[in-house]
Amino acid sequence: MNERYSRQILFAEIGKDGQEKLLKSRVLIVGCGALGASHAEMLARAGVGFLRIVDRDFVEFTNLQRQTLFSEQDAKERLPKAIAAKNRLKEINSEIEVEAIVADVNRSNIENLLEDCDLILDGTDNFQTRYLINDASVKNNKTWIYGAAVSSYGVTMTIIPDKTPCLRCVFEEIPGAGSSPTCDTAGVIQPIIATISAIQISEALKILVGKIKNLHQSLIQIDVWRNDWRKIKLGKPNAECKTCRQKFFEFLEVENVEFSAVLCGRDAVQISPPNSTVLDLPMLAEKLKNLGKVKQNEYLLRLSVDQYELTIFRDARAIVRGTDDITTARSVYAKYVGV
Question: Alpha carbon of 93 to those of 76, 272, 317: distances in Å?
């Protein structure tokens, strides 16, 4: 066994057998912002053999205060977060496999993404994606670990289909738009990221080495600034739950239409086309070069034109900065991308 893991093997609850299980484990990390980056680094250092990291966004300087895998150079180059994470993780542990996918996790791809993984870790920043993960998790009998952090407050729970309450048992409906604070409206400090991620990864290690009896079996709420720690014991799944009892997978069954989302606090809108597409970025750059300032790398293209900035990915998604109006963003997208 690699000496790298010797101190972890000395921990009796993991030991040599547990370490071998970790090396054979496969984990899907959905979102590689603050929580996701922390998850990925801890799992890589622990020797989890395969990490699939999926994220739709690119690195910005505002990320560097809390998203620990990224560097100033990543922000200067606007590298996709999944790619930047993979590059850094290869330096941390070259012996594991890291798959970086630059994509928006949605109903068309989530089941394929989780199919060959043992566990799903939540590193997202929105409830829409979390309810999607919950549906896919229950439908495919995959354990996942919910986590969220904003300001100095965080929450987490572990969801094992048919054994524990699912996310919708606890939170029956998605909070209304604007009703929940975000990192862009309320800020966030690094200690709450580290705290929630540490709990999520502790749970992940227990699951992957087969120590299910040690799971906390609760909804944990923490405010590190106010020194408030709460552990709400979870009972049985809600007998009326639409997802885990009625098997109604609402978020997997939404019609395949263009998806648009306002990126809160960023004066930006994400536009995703309804059908899977792969753009030829050099060809698009050539097409756009006389219309505005164009910069391009292997993963994305950036166009600055009028008061807008479009960041266009190879899967034809675009983040339109300069407006928080979806109709305007769609119009700008159609004008310059046209797919």
Answer: 25, 34, 31
